[in-house]
Specification:
alpha/beta, Spore Coat Polysaccharide Biosynthesis Protein SpsA, Chain A, binds uridine-5'-diphosphate, binds magnesium ion
């Protein structure tokens, strides 16, 4: 497939392609060197691709920054953005995307779970005319059971509630054309759920399949409570369905109560007054109380989100930018 207006994409023949790789890092001192080596192995011999790798140090408390600065001495194509504290992966990625100058941009994890070799395959698709090339993992065998099940439930619930569907088995690893990145940066929200935002902007999209390897070193930064909150943020950022459900539930419960009331009225007229059932009264009250609290909780989730957005704070703060050459 090819699209008539994209003739300039053939970097293999004449123009040199500037490729930006964006890597958020948080306490990854063991991984940074390994990633740089792999990237060099893959792109070192390709003359038509000029590379910049933007590491966003997301408030690491280990020696990640020192390691990166060391690597930059011998690899001038490395750009380091040092954030003032840990802002989370989404914010760090946003910082990297903003700094990326490339004609194509690839966000990826530092732990080599996103193999750099795949970028070449993705670039070939981009040359064919696609604006977004997703890396889709063929199986989740390398994930723990808990992560596999929670992920599958998250996608099910999210895609059921939200109009913007997130493709399953696709992470942040993808290749994007400049126009896509510019569109993403136009989105003004400060709480950024990137998976949803990627899907929201759209564009001509295709995918390449790959087997996602295990993390090479270090430990996963997303576990338990953090993952749960991330899922909540995802759903409330892209769907208002949880708010609307309460109206329908309210109508349903009120309808049931009304018909039950009618039934009791008729029965009392026919059979006279009997001794009321305190147990059923108590259970109904508790049940409705519970339902109301859940409703208020959901409301609170959204009000909280509106509050955070209303403050209009920046998504991240850069303490220092280390850049040795112009792009
Ligand atoms: N990361 C980050 N800030 C955070 C948490 C993670 O920049 O607060 C980075 C981390 O260094 C890695 C990427 O996000 O490059 C993905 O993290 P991880 O591999 O721990 O996630 P998983 O693969 O387990 O989902
Ligand atoms: Mg990982």
């Amino acid at each position: 497939m090819s699209f008539a207006n994209d003739v300039s994409r053939d970097y293999t023949s004449c123009p040199i392609l500037l490729l930006s790789i964006v890597v958020p890092v948080f306490n990854e001192e063991e991984m940074t060197g390994l990633l740089v080596d792999r990237v060099k192995q893959v792109f070192g011999s390709i003359e038509t691709i000029r590379l910049e790798v933007i590491f966003v140090n997301d408030g690491s408390s280990d020696r990640t920054l020192e390691k990166l600065l060391d690597l930059q001495k011998t690899n001038p194509w490395i750009v380091i953005a040092d954030l003032s504290r840990n802002f989370g992966k989404e914010a760090a990625m946003t910082a990297g995307l903003k700094l990326a100058a490339g004609q194509v941009v690839v966000p990826m994890d530092v732990d080599l779970q996103d193999p750099p070799e795949l970028i070449l395959e993705m670039a070939a698709k981009w040359r064919e005319g696609f604006d977004v090339v997703l890396a889709r993992r063929m199986s989740r065998d390398t994930d723990s059971f808990a992560k596999k099940t929670s992920a599958s439930w998250f996608y099910r619930v999210h895609n059921w509630l939200s109009e913007v569907k997130i493709p399953e088995n696709v992470g942040d690893f993808r290749l994007m054309d400049r126009t896509v990145v510019d569109a993403l940066l136009e989105l003004p929200e400060s709480c950024r759920f990137m998976k949803g935002m990627f899907a929201w902007v759209g564009f001509r999209t295709c995918h390449v399949d790959y087997v996602r390897p295990k993390r090479v070193a270090g430990t996963s930064k997303f576990r338990g409570w953090k993952l749960w909150n991330f899922a909540l943020q995802g759903i409330t950022s892209f769907s208002t369905a949880p708010l609307r459900i309460w109206t329908y539930l309210g109508v349903l419960v009120a309808g049931l109560a009304l018909s039950w009331g009618g039934y009791i009225l008729v029965r009392t007229l026919i059979e006279g007054i009997d001794v009321p059932g305190y147990a059923s009264l108590f259970v109904t009250m508790m049940f409705l109380g519970g339902i109301q609290l859940i409703g208020i909780g959901v409301l609170g989730e959204y009000v909280g989100r509106v509050y955070l957005e209303a403050k209009r704070r920046p998504t991240y703060v850069i303490r220092n930018l280390y850049k040795t050459q112009d792009t």
